[in-house]
Write a structure and sequence with these properties.
alpha/beta; four-stranded parallel β-sheet; 12 strands
């Protein structure tokens, strides 16, 4: 996860196989949710194992998604139960930090290490099926997970009892992994319930040189400049203290924080740029939207089509092929979004925060002028576009404080 100046990982879901297969040269690795890895062991495992054996050698890491078990879930899904069983949580488990005694910590750590270390062999049943689809697979090149993320919980301070359990789980997991695979890396996830919690927690981890960070519900489009600046400052200060940080979730603002030292980020294909630590009820997949590269944001495909027709927006990516956004199907919209992110990483990660702020300001000004001159028949489309521009000045103010 720290292979490049800024590593680009995709959070994987079973519905993403076709997109991932076609985009394997446009990202650096896969982050597989523990629920998916547990519930669809052979299918998901066979696919990511085969992908690791291609010429691209796509690495993968399994996210334990353990914060699921610091909350009450009234109607657990089968994927939740599958992960619970792999971790070895008791049948009558309840999310009470006082019940995490030494025995339970050791058991969960050992089970998680065993699952990761045996993942290559457990998932080999479907390997040949996916190897045939991918085409350039060398069986002997298949790999285990690149590193092991220790189970963790979301915390709001040093005094949060879930933080103490996270510390114990990391130490136990690292020790168990050393017993089985002395040369393998065990990495900590610092899951903070807020930016202020991350600011408090990071300095306490003096010995960690690399770690994964996650601020719950950090929506880059709705967070104010002061909080985004505080997040960036935490990254910058962590980097100054010798830490390499990878964001478990992040969008384009995370890419901008490369200038402050952030070493990478993962996101869902399409829309998963942030996540709440709590498992929230879902009402089906999000509607298909178009990633507007000039604003680094998803908008309605109908709006994007109007802007395309008025020559306000253009995208040269392979998924678009100079076609109007309205003609892209769901799969093409997903591919377009990943291509855009890959291009953003290539073009923006060499910039300092101040240079990035200047470029954002210049590009926003140019976009605004094209919008003003555009011959758009219905005025509401212009007003809607203007509402989608409001986050850019916020980002500029945040970057200017770094």
């Amino acid at each position: 996860m720290f292979e490049k100046k800024f590593s680009h990982y995709l959070s994987y879901g079973p519905a993403d196989q076709h997109t991932v297969r076609e985009l394997r040269d446009s990202f650096d690795g896969l982050l597989v949710p523990g629920t998916v890895a547990a519930f669809q062991l052979e299918g998901t495992g066979g696919f990511v194992l085969a992908l690791s054996a291609t010429e691209a050698h796509t690495p993968y890491v399994i996210d334990p998604r353990s914060p699921l078990f610091q909350q009450d879930i009234e109607e657990p899904k089968r994927a939740h139960e599958a992960l619970k069983a792999i971790l070895g949580l008791p049948e009558n488990y309840s999310p009470n930090p006082r019940k995490w005694n030494a025995s339970l910590v050791e058991k969960v750590a050992e089970n998680w290490v065993n699952f990761n270390c045996s993942y290559k062999t457990q998932t080999s049943a479907k390997f040949d099926k996916y190897a045939k689809r991918l085409g350039d697979v060398k069986h002997e090149a298949a790999t285990e997970p690149k590193l092991l993320l220790a189970p963790y919980f979301a915390s709001d301070s040093e005094s949060d009892p879930w933080w103490e359990i996270s510390l114990r789980l990391f130490e136990a997991t690292r020790a168990k992994l050393a017993e089985q695979r002395g040369n393998r890396t065990c990495m900590r996830v610092v899951a903070a319930k807020s930016v202020s919690a991350l600011v408090t927690l990071l300095p306490t981890l003096q010995d960690d040189k690399q770690m994964v960070i996650w601020v719950s519900s950090l929506d880059e489009f709705k967070t104010d400049a002061a909080e985004l600046a505080s997040y960036g400052t935490a990254v910058r200060e962590g980097t100054a203290n010798g830490k390499e940080l990878f964001a478990l979730y992040g969008g384009f603002f995370a890419v901008l924080l490369s200038g402050a030292g952030l070493r990478g980020a993962s996101h869902g294909i399409g829309y998963g740029e942030y996540r709440n630590w709590k498992e929230l009820p879902q009402s089906g997949p999000p509607p298909a939207r178009y990633y507007l590269p000039e604003l680094h944001k998803y908008v309605r495909a109908e709006l994007a089509d109007v802007l395309w027709g008025a020559q306000v927006t253009r995208c040269p990516c392979p998924a678009c092929g100079n076609n109007p956004p309205i003609l892209l199907d769901y799969h093409e919209l997903m591919m377009h979004s990943v291509h855009c992110r890959a291009r953003e990483i290539k073009e923006w990660t060499a910039l300092s925060p101040s240079d990035a702020a200047s470029r954002l300001d210049s590009e926003l000004d140019a976009f605004g002028k094209r919008l003003k001159k555009a011959k758009i028949q219905q005025e509401p489309f212009k007003r809607e576009t203007e509402r989608h521009m409001t986050h850019i000045p916020v980002w500029i103010r945040a970057l200017s404080q770094l």
